[in-house]
TrEMBL record, chain A:
The keyword DNA repair does not apply. The chain crosses the membrane at residues 18-37, 112-129, 156-182, 215-237, 244-261, 297-319. The keyword Transmembrane applies. This is ABC transporter permease.
UniProtKB/TrEMBL annotation, chain B:
InterPro entries: Ester_Hydrolysis_Enzymes, SGNH_hydro, SGNH_hydro_sf. It holds the Pfam family Lipase_GDSL_2. Signal peptide: none annotated. Residues 64-253 form the SGNH hydrolase-type esterase domain. This is GDSL family lipase. It comes from Paenibacillus montanisoli. GO terms for molecular function: phosphatidylcholine lysophospholipase activity. PANTHER family: SPORE GERMINATION LIPASE LIPC (PTHR30383:SF27), THIOESTERASE 1/PROTEASE 1/LYSOPHOSPHOLIPASE L1 (PTHR30383).
Length: 325, 269
């Protein structure tokens, strides 16, 4: 089995897929880093003489007085957290609007999880099986004495490995590139999480703060899961559809439809069972409303899991039963 | 050679797969089982709220209530008019100890202020106060600039009516808690005086202040301190970057004006 997976990894690396993905990610990260650097410079120019420390101290004082005279209205816990969070920046002399690499990585994963990362997975997964059809090598592969499901499984395992390494590259590259520009400070900056939505209202009673490195690890874990599911669905399409271009087209349409749907589905409740509406997992950790009422992290994970397993079953059934000619 | 490279890649991939699986597991554990471990720390803060203030200890107590003007938004030093007022008072009476409690909250409107007065901690401070300064109404009137889009008299009148009722409630409450303290209500200035519709907006603010003064006149030792005139001619010199709050100079003007109204005869009795 290991040898079969190894064989598939040779094919993936031979097609330079991972190199392409790495290059795309590296270029994009450099672009965004530069954009953020420009913005920081612009902010400095515009608000240059306003000392951020006093602004921060004032904000903290505002929250403290709100706490003191009890107009927090049940948000006391959250206010205390926010005060502690801002104090962290004060104590370590970090300007919160010019943070270091960890904050950049956090924001980048957050934004990349819905479209950028799934697209990268698509590049690797789209022609995994269909290219064997188009180049005719599928016959060579299937005439071996190896059972068909083992061949497909080895391809899938190779895909899993690729997904994992891409997530790692994503994390490492964004840390290194942005760190060179912004510095590497702020790994243990507190991040607020634990918001829940009850009855349409944001419930802040369970709010707690995590060190940033842990939050990033959690984010990447979620990104890994999302990427794996998207890769699995692409994998299924690659089995079903014989031309790589069609696989790419269908997946692209789904993913882009997902980003549009998330904006407009509020009234269409059953849309929450579509996988592409459920990609924004990281939002659940933060204070954002779910796109449709009744969606939660558990729900979205379950929907994605069902789609992933379904796609896997369809791929295996179709691949083992189909006539190849 | 190439084979080794790919084997290394596979090992690294498998390892990172495990790490991210761990990250996912951690997320689930934190999201579903993560008990707010801060609940324990917030309890003692609530327990210590039984302050019994000695009223006659010779200290001069100032309690400031209200919105961002009281908080000092726009002042780079964060003092606000309360800070400058106290500075001015300290130069007037050097050996007098002055205690300041600032309960200003950015964005506070009159109903919020009324609600905050029910807090026991605030009430006990108020009871002991020699001077109470209140700035409220700016957010009721301008609503973060929203009102500028609808300056018709009916709209303004309905806002004003609601404000006066709320203000009356606040003043009654304050007077009930502390009948003897000097109460200064800071009037509104017109931050939009350099923009279009100056005539209309200034008239609205002037009328607003007049009605507020009428409401305050019912209560003893209650003074509406005008600020409209301070900002009338050189508004750009006294406004912060947001073109709404005063800057340090603007706050100094307000603070000194209030300080000039505070006398010390009562203290020396």
């Amino acid at each position: 089995m290991i040898n079969l997976v190894y064989n598939e990894m040779v094919k993936i690396t031979g097609k330079r897929r991972l190199v392409v993905v790495t290059l795309i990610i590296a270029i994009l990260i450099s672009l965004f880093t530069y954009a953020q650097f420009q913005q920081a410079a612009e902010n400095r120019k515009r608000f240059g003489d306003v000392d951020w420390r006093t602004a921060l101290e004032q904000r903290i004082a505002g929250w403290e007085s709100r706490l003191a005279n009890g107009s927090g209205r049940g948000d006391e816990g959250e206010l205390e957290m926010r005060i502690a969070q801002q104090r962290y920046y004060l104590d370590r002399n970090i300007n919160p609007s010019e943070p270091g690499a960890p904050t950049f990585v956090r924001g980048f994963v957050e934004n990349g999880i819905t479209l950028l990362l799934p697209l990268m997975m698509m590049i690797v997964a789209a022609d995994l099986v269909s290219s064997e059809h188009s180049s005719g090598t599928i016959k060579v592969l299937l005439t071996r004495s190896v059972r068909r499901w083992r061949i497909l499984l080895s391809k899938y395992l190779a895909l899993m490995l690729s997904v994992s390494i891409i997530i790692t590259l994503f994390g490492v590259l964004s840390t290194v590139i942005s760190g060179l520009v912004f510095g590497f400070q702020g790994w243990d900056a507190p991040v607020l999480t634990g918001f829940t939505v009850t009855g349409g209202e944001l419930d802040t009673s369970g709010v707690r703060s995590l060190p940033q490195w842990q939050f990033i690890l959690m984010e990447l874990g979620l990104a890994w899961f999302v990427s794996l599911v998207v890769a699995t669905i692409t994998f299924m399409l690659s089995v079903l559809v014989r031309t790589t271009a069609a696989v790419m087209g269908i997946m692209l349409a789904c993913l882009i439809a997902g980003t549009i749907l998330r904006e407009m589905v509020e009234s269409w409740e059953t849309a929450k069972y579509l996988f592409m509406v459920n990609l924004e997992l990281i939002d659940y950790l933060q204070d954002a409303d779910p796109p449709i009422a009744g969606m939660s992290l558990g729900f979205s994970l379950l929907v994605l899991l069902v789609w992933g397993i379904g796609a896997l079953i369809v791929s295996f059934v179709s691949f083992t039963r189909r006539d190849v000619y | 050679m190439k084979g080794n490279w790919i084997q290394g890649l596979m090992a690294a991939s498998a390892l990172s797969g495990l790490i991210w699986l761990g990250g996912l597991g951690w997320t689930l554990q934190d999201y579903f089982a993560g008990a707010p471990d801060t609940a324990g720390t917030s309890i003692p803060a609530a327990a210590e709220e039984t302050p019994a203030l000695a009223v006659d200890d010779g200290k001069f107590r100032v309690v400031a209530l209200g919105d961002s003007i009281t908080r000092g938004a726009g002042d780079p030093d964060g003092k606000g008019y309360v800070g400058y007022m106290v500075e001015a008072l300290k130069t007037k009476a050097k050996d007098q100890e002055i205690l300041v409690k600032n309960y200003g909250i950015n964005g506070m409107r009159t109903p919020d202020l009324a609600a905050s007065l029910t807090e026991p901690a605030v009430r006990s401070e108020l009871k002991a106060a020699d001077v109470i300064v209140v700035s409220v109404g700016g957010n009721d009137l301008f609503r973060g600039g929203e009102t500028l889009g609808n300056l018709n008299p009916d709209n303004i009148a309905s806002i004003q009516e609601a404000y006066l009722v709320d203000l009356d409630g606040v003043l009654k409450d304050l007077r009930g808690v502390n009948p003897s303290a000097k109460l200064f209500l800071i009037g509104l200035y017109n931050p939009f005086i350099a923009m279009k519709d100056t005539k209309t907006t200034t008239k609205i603010v002037r009328d607003w202040n007049y009605q507020a003064a009428e409401t305050a006149a019912v209560y003893p030792d209650t003074v509406l301190v005008p600020t409209l005139d301070l900002f009338q001619l050189q508004v750009q010199d006294y406004l912060a970057r947001d073109q709404f709050h005063p800057n340090a100079e603007g706050y100094r003007l307000i603070g000194e004006r209030v300080a000039s109204l505070i006398t010390w005869k009562e203290e020396s009795e």
